[in-house]
Amino acid sequence: MRNAEHGNRTSKGTLALSGWRQLIATLVSAAQGLLPLLLAIAVLLVLFSLWVPQGRFLRFDNLIDLAQQVSVNAILAFGLTLVILIGGIDLSVGAVVAVAGVVSVSLLTPAGPVVAFLGGIGIGALFGLFNGLFAARTLMPPFIITLATMLVARGFALGFNESRPLPVGEEQHLFLSLGNARWWGWLPMPVILMLVVFVFSTILLHGTRFGQHLFAIGGNREAARLAGIAIATHEVLVYVFCGACAGLAGMIHASQLYSAEPAAGQGYELSAIAAVVLGGTSFSGGVGSVPGTLVGAIIIGILDKGLNQAGVHFSLQYIVKGGVILAAVWYDVFRRRVKSRQA
Q: Phi, psi at residue 162, to the nearest 5°?
């Protein structure tokens, strides 16, 4: 009996060790593939340090501010990475940012910050559940499903308080700390939350059987089905996770503004998608990484802040971002064609 128990423990320990080794090997491989993007970050930092007046772009306080701005987009992008990896898309995350902010702030006074926090995450997950169920159980394309929920969420946010902002009272210290607190006097709370979601997403995707199944579904859905993978369940869970990330991002955004803005989050889905695609996740599914998405979000953040501080008109900033998305998708298509020819 003791020998059997010892054998079971040894087997579980071996499996756990194997899982961590696989995670480390995946992250090392991803880091090697991200070298061109890391080089791009270095080039952009040098470029904007020369372009922005008085060399203020590389100042410590400016870089910390940049990290704080990146955090909301990165959290959205982490959720979208899993969705795009399985061949889906979620256009509703920007509108869910607004809904989560409105719902959480409306719950602060009557129910307290804990319930408000759960409400923000919950409403995001609820929209994700709706998207996931429709994507998994119907033949409707995710693009159409999430386009519809984007409109529903935006209408809900605008109609909740007759399109008026909901201010956050100065006494709501816990909620306001989500977007404004700084640990050790310099590290913003949004950056800490971003890193927590990053670590969780990385382990989930690259260190668990669930993550392996997502790669399998995105690579070949029919083969995954024949292998016994519960595709519908995985698809629903991925959209729920994406919605929960949008809920968290919405509360951080409302906390930073000291107000829940019904029009918040407009265009956020485009920046998040740009970060995911730029980070190497393929629109065709089956290829991608969470570290790549983080690097993509950093590049988008550097472009946004650098162009803004350099005095570039906001209309040109949209053109640059669109060009970056187009270039990233073109590179993905080119890379897949090269691989198919080599095979």
A: 55, 40
Summarised one tens digit per residue, pLDDT across range 92-146 is 999 999 999 999 999 999 999 999 999 999 999 999 999 999 999 998 999 999 9
Give the whole-number percent of the chain exceeding pLDDT 90.
Answer: 71
The pTM of this model reads: 0.90
> What b/e readout covers 139-151, taking b as 16+ CB neighbours within 10 angstroms?
eeebeebbebbbe
Give a yes or no: residue 203 inside a domain: yes
Domain ranges, residue 115: 56-334
Q: What is the tally of structural domains in the chain?
A: 1
The confidence score (pLDDT) of residue 10 equals: 52
Domain of 137, CATH number, reads 1.10.3470.10
**d(C-alpha 9, C-alpha 184), whole Å:** 41
Q: How many CB atoms lie within 10 A of CB 22?
A: 15
The residues pairing with 260 across neighbouring beta strands, listed in sequence order, are: 166
In a domain, 23, yes or no: no
Which phi-psi region, left, alpha or beta, contains residue 36 (left: φ > 0; alpha: ψ -120 to 50)?
A: alpha
Does residue 312 sit within a domain?
yes
Burial class (CB in 10 A: 0-12, 13-18, 19+), 4: exposed
pLDDT digits (tens, 9 = 90+) for 134-184: 999 998 999 999 999 999 999 999 998 888 999 999 999 999 999 999 999
Continuous H helices in the chain? 2-33, 35-51, 60-85, 93-111, 113-137, 142-160, 173-180, 189-206, 209-219, 221-226, 231-257, 268-278, 290-309, 314-342
272 in a structural domain: yes
State the Cα–Cα distance between residues 259 and 273, nearest whole angstrom: 26
